[in-house]
Amino acid sequence: MTDQASKTAPAAKKLFIKTYGCQMNVYDSQRMAEAMSAEGYELTEDQAQADMVLLNTCHIREKAAEKLYSDLGRLKPLKAENPDLKIGVAGCVAQAEGEEIVRRMPLVDLVVGPQTYHRLPEMLRGEAPKILTDFPEEDKFDHLPQRRATRRAPAAFLTVQEGCDKFCAFCVVPYTRGAEVSRPVERILREARDLVERGVREITLLGQNVNGWHGAGEDGREWGFGRLIRALGEIEGLDRIRYTTSHPNDMADDLIAAHRDVPQLMPYLHLPVQSGSDRILKAMNRKHTATQYLRLIDRIREARPDIMLTSDFIVGFPGETDQDHADTLRLIEKVGFGTAFSFKYSPRPGTPAYERAEVDTAVADARLQELQALLTRQQKATQESMVGRSLGVLFEKPGRIDGQMVGKSDYLHSVFVDAPDAQIGDLVPVRIVESARNSLRGELAA
Ligand code: SAH
Ligand code: SF4
Ligand code: F3S
């Protein structure tokens, strides 16, 4: 800003946000930025320029949580230089550790949980406590400022469901995000229409158990998640719908049928199974067997034969034997995943599995390597099977090379395309010509 300009208008304050963890945190960071923009803060990419630094944190594994403290440590010199700098901690570590954060790191000015961040502006003005991590009765989304009518990137997230009642034995989410809550139909449809008006063509519906979403529909009846997707499919200009993350036990018939019936619903499903051993699934409190999961996959593929499946796996859960591990590898062989995330089990304080005896680290490491090697082979085979096919690609940004565009295919692969005349937001047919390590290369279909 020039001197001239700063005389006429007060300089906007700068907000730097760092986001850890899952897509819901990405969505929340955006909503927090909007709440703060109503207070005169604009986003900066440069932490050194910031008047406020907000760390939106993840508690899922020990490493993720510890990252917060090392990042806070690194903020000390910045705060020493600029004592007016505000430092806030949001997200799941804020929820789980609350006061502990301020005790360990006195430079932190405020701590706000995932269900209370609509009160950030009040907290900043000193009109609310400096630590807010309750689960309030009111819905934060009702209290967040209306979005400004700015243009958006072509692909957006939309939270429709939050929280978890499943209580898998390893997982902190039911404690950090609270009980399952579904947002009402008309708010979701309104937000989706608003996004489309602002240039969005692809929406990914978010929830910790997104397919457990349910609510009173426009017709007064109880809607399930499949019905919601059908309603979103009627929005003109919304070309692609995705959702994540789903629990196998909430894959209702109507949702499976929506994969057959709704053309905008992309042929991609992230359906975490965690393990292929019935013994371990039971110890994890997943409430289904490996066979039930496989039957479910069969039914989904019957509805949508070209669907690509992805999953999460935990390796080295307490009590896991070589046989359990072999069962997991066998399940992976049977399903054939497009890609998957796999993690070494991390004991989390407060969860039922925390006190259980751990698998030897070296054993768990070896199992993780073996499992990842198999998943990598499957990913490679899936990507190679795309070569020669024509797929829709939604361009999201220019590539590194002049005239190149990068976008996502129907299957969520990044595709690099030589397309000098294309615009961001174009959704075009692309012929896939080559598979690289984590992306595809394509040519504009004539
Ligand atoms: N709601 C999603 C998962 C959220 S957490 C679901 O139910 O699938 C994302 C992934 O992190 C989980 O699927 C699991 O594979 C992994 N995860 C969760 N807790 C973990 C822990 N304590 N140790 C290792 N991985 C964990
Ligand atoms: Fe965690 Fe299980 Fe809930 Fe997923 S379903 S968020 S893994 S407790
Ligand atoms: Fe992490 Fe919280 Fe998401 S623990 S994975 S940021 S719900």
TrEMBL record:
Domain (TRAM) ranges: 384-446
Keywords: 4Fe-4S, Cytoplasm, Iron, Iron-sulfur, Metal-binding, S-adenosyl-L-methionine, Transferase, tRNA processing
Coiled-coil residue spans: none
Reactions the enzyme catalyzes: N(6)-dimethylallyladenosine(37) in tRNA + (sulfur carrier)-SH + AH2 + 2 S-adenosyl-L-methionine = 2-methylsulfanyl-N(6)-dimethylallyladenosine(37) in tRNA + (sulfur carrier)-H + 5'-deoxyadenosine + L-methionine + A + S-adenosyl-L-homocysteine + 2 H(+); N(6)-dimethylallyladenosine(37) in tRNA + (sulfur carrier)-SH + AH2 + S-adenosyl-L-methionine = 2-thio-N(6)-dimethylallyladenosine(37) in tRNA + (sulfur carrier)-H + 5'-deoxyadenosine + L-methionine + A + H(+); 2-thio-N(6)-dimethylallyladenosine(37) in tRNA + S-adenosyl-L-methionine = 2-methylsulfanyl-N(6)-dimethylallyladenosine(37) in tRNA + S-adenosyl-L-homocysteine + H(+)
SMART domains hit by this protein: Elp3
One of the Pfam families matching this protein, by short name: TRAM
Cofactor(s) needed by this chain: [4Fe-4S] cluster
Chain residues that bind [4Fe-4S] cluster 2: 164, 168, 171
Record-linked PROSITE patterns: MTTASE_N, MTTASE_RADICAL, RADICAL_SAM, TRAM
Entry function: Catalyzes the methylthiolation of N6-(dimethylallyl)adenosine (i(6)A), leading to the formation of 2-methylthio-N6-(dimethylallyl)adenosine (ms(2)i(6)A) at position 37 in tRNAs that read codons beginning with uridine.
Subunit (UniProt): Monomer.
Protein name as catalogued: tRNA-2-methylthio-N(6)-dimethylallyladenosine synthase
Native source species: Paracoccus saliphilus
Source lineage: Bacteria, Pseudomonadati, Pseudomonadota, Alphaproteobacteria, Rhodobacterales
